[in-house]
Amino acid sequence: MARISSKNQVTIPVAALEEVGLHAGEQVTIEPASEGELRIRRSAVTFEGAFGALTGTYPAGYLEELDAEDELR
């Protein structure tokens, strides 16, 4: 049985996570379901949520160089 800690944290049993296919590190949404119940579900990936995910992947100015090359074509 899980308990809510003084920091409002809950450890979810591994068996429950495995049954629904959730894994450590996944983002989830927690919302009220009914009196005394919460619903935990995998968060949907949106463009807004993914925006900036590749920040730092390319060296500074790289994308601007690609844009400049495209303009020359």
Strand content: 15-25%
Order of helices and strands: HEEHH
Tell me the structural class: alpha+beta
Oligomer status: single chain
Count of alpha and pi helical runs: 3
**How is the biggest beta sheet arranged?**
2 strands, antiparallel
**What portion of residues is helical?**
25-40%
Mean pLDDT equals 88
**CA gyration radius, whole angstroms:** 21 Å
Low confidence ranges: none
**How would you sum up the global shape?**
elongated
The total strand number stands at 2
Strand order of the largest sheet: 1-2
Ends distance: 64 Å
How does this model look, in words?
This protein is of the alpha+beta class and 73 residues long. The chain has a two-stranded antiparallel ribbon with strand order 1-2. It has three helices and two strands. The termini are far apart. The mean pLDDT is 88.
Quick structural summary:
This protein has helices spanning 14-20, 47-50, 62-72, and strands at residues 28-34, 37-42. The chain has 73 residues and is of the alpha+beta class.
Could you list some keywords that capture this structure?
elongated; 18% strand; 30% helix; two-stranded antiparallel ribbon
Write the layout of secondary structure elements.
Blueprint: H1 14-20, E1 28-34, E2 37-42, H2 47-50, H3 62-72
Antiparallel strand pairs: 1-2
